[in-house]
Amino acid sequence: MKIGPVVLDNILVLAPLAGITTLPFRLLAKASGCGLVCSEMISANGLVYGSAKTQELLNSRIGEKPLSVQIFGSDPGLMAEAAAMVEASGADILDINLGCAVKKVLKTGSGAALMKTPGKVEKILLAVRKSINIPLTVKMRTGWDKSGSDAIKIAEIAEAAGVDGITLHPRLATQGFGGKADWSLIADVKKNVAVPVIGNGDITTPEDALVMKKETNSDGLMIGRAAIGNPWIFSQVLSLMKGGERISPSLSERFDAMKTYLATSIDCFGEQRTCRMMRSHLGWFVKGLRFSGRFRESIKRVSTQKEAMSLIIKYFEELS
Fold it and tell me: Were 83 and a residue from 92, 128, 182, 288 both cysteine, which residue would form a disulfide, CB within 3.0 to 4.6 Å?
């Protein structure tokens, strides 16, 4: 799949997930076969006004390339300025968030709120397109109208404004992650634009990815929540696409990923901050394993790298 001039190894994309798709997590996904990884959602205002915490979200490494960085905001000028900063940071693709339905984002007129104002969407995309040379994409929801007409209209506006790709999560802004994603709307958008369309929503198993591809004819497949603690879903989907089997990670592979995630996180964020994160994050990787509840309880108070590594090794030995 190509997004503008950027050629991806395959059609699988890691969705941007706030607090989850950090650099260490993206590296795991990439190592597991993901074709394109995406940053967490980044505030355009935070970038432009010099927030160190926001700037940190742009950190990247060669091992995760190509990288898509997603920004959100509602002011065309600020969005264009932030987009230029993203390009300067070395990102390969700039993505505009038109789908976040979190209240504090909607209150600012950003995210899915923009789908109510097609004129403003057009102004933002035209301003951003002029400010950067890298590919520009958008990620949106169905919008606010159950028929999907919002999505089709915004998709057509986006294409006309020079966008190089469109991702659709076919749920209403009011649904959150509830209900069921209407994949037929992905097919509808695909029929109405010529740029690549990436389908997102309710891919919970590797098999779901193949069904979405067949039902929607989407160019790409974006996986989000199903990849949390399970980066192997990307290699499993690729195997199925090639006619192979769905191979589950071995116990050693699962625990090696936990160790790598811990070490890379400490390298990126420091020991103290990482340990606070690991109190919940390490639990992602042990879902379905014996004694997982006990392990999750044991890491709730972890405060050093040595302690975290010791608990990981101890749990592995219990299961071996």
Answer: 128
